C-alpha cells in the first residue's frame, strides 16, 4: 500500500485512549501522499515550493488523484498550502476507499470511531505490510505517526529521515497539526466564554 494507506491503518491500530482526530489525520495523510509523490519523481521541492516532475501517474487511485490535483503551472504551491487544501476531509476519503477495497470492515463494538461509523482493519496482506513497516520503525511512517501522537517521538537510536524533501514535509505536517490544535483550543475558550456570558453570575 501507499504511505498514506499504511498510516491510516496504523492510526486505527494504535490502541490509544483517545482516537486520532479526523482533521489531524487528514493533514498527515496529505503529507504522506506528498512524500510518495516526491519519492516517485512526480513532484520536486524547491525552497518549500512544489514543482511538477516528469514521472508517470501513480497506479494507486488515491495517489493518482493527489497527483492530478497538484498545481502544474506557476505560481506553484507551497507545502503548507497543499496540506490544507488536499487534506480537507481526506481521512473520510481514505476510509471510503479502504472499505471499498475490502481493507476495512464495520465494527460492532469498540471505542475507535473514524467518522460517523466504527470500522476496523481486515486481516489482509496489505495490513500485514503496514504493521511490518511500523514494527520496523520505518522513518517516514514513524515521523508522520508521531505528528498524530502515535508511538511518541522517534528515539535517537532509530534511523532518521535521510531525505531533505521528506524532512520538510514532515515538519510542515507537525506545524499544521499544531496550528489546528491551536484553533481548536481558541474555539473552545470562545465557546466557554460565550456560555458563561449567557449563564450569568
Automatic annotation (TrEMBL):
**What GO molecular function terms would the record report?**
phosphatidylinositol-4-phosphate binding
Task: State the organism of origin.
Answer: Streptomyces termitum
Query: Where is it located?
Result: Golgi apparatus membrane
According to its UniProt record, where is this protein mainly located?
Golgi
Its keywords, alphabetically, are: Golgi apparatus, Lipid-binding, Membrane
Record-given protein name = GPP34 family phosphoprotein
Q: InterPro entries from the xrefs?
A: GPP34-like (IPR008628), GPP34-like_sf (IPR038261)
Q: How does it sit in the membrane?
A: Peripheral membrane protein
Superkingdom as given in the UniProt entry: Bacteria
Membrane recorded as keyword: yes
A Pfam family recorded for this sequence: GPP34
Amino acid at each position: 500500500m501507499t504511505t498514506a494507506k499504511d498510516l491510516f491503518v496504523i492510526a486505527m491500530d494504535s490502541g490509544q485512549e483517545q482516537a486520532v482526530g479526523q482533521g489531524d489525520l487528514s493533514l498527515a495523510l496529505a503529507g504522506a501522499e506528498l512524500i510518495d509523490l516526491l519519492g516517485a519523481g512526480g513532484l520536486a521541492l524547491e525552497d518549500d515550493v512544489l514543482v511538477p516532475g516528469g514521472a508517470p501517474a501513480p497506479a494507486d487511485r488515491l495517489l493518482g488523484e493527489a497527483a492530478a490535483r497538484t498545481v502544474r503551472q506557476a505560481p506553484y504551491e507551497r507545502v503548507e498550502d497543499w496540506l490544507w487544501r488536499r487534506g480537507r476531509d481526506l481521512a473520510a476519503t481514505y476510509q471510503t476507499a479502504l472499505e471499498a477495497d475490502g481493507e476495512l470492515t464495520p465494527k460492532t463494538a469498540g471505542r475507535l470511531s473514524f467518522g460517523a461509523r466504527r470500522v476496523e482493519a481486515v486481516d489482509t496482506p496489505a495490513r500485514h505490510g503496514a504493521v511490518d513497516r511500523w514494527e520496523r520503525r520505518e522513518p517516514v511512517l514513524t515521523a508522520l505517526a508521531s505528528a498524530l501522537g502515535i508511538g511518541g517521538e522517534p528515539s535517537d537510536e532509530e534511523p532518521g529521515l535521510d531525505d531533505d524533501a521528506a524532512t520538510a514535509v514532515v515538519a510542515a505536517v507537525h506545524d499544521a497539526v499544531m496550528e489546528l490544535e491551536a484553533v481548536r483550543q481558541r474555539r473552545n475558550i470562545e465557546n466557554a466564554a460565550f456560555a458563561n456570558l449567557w449563564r450569568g453570575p
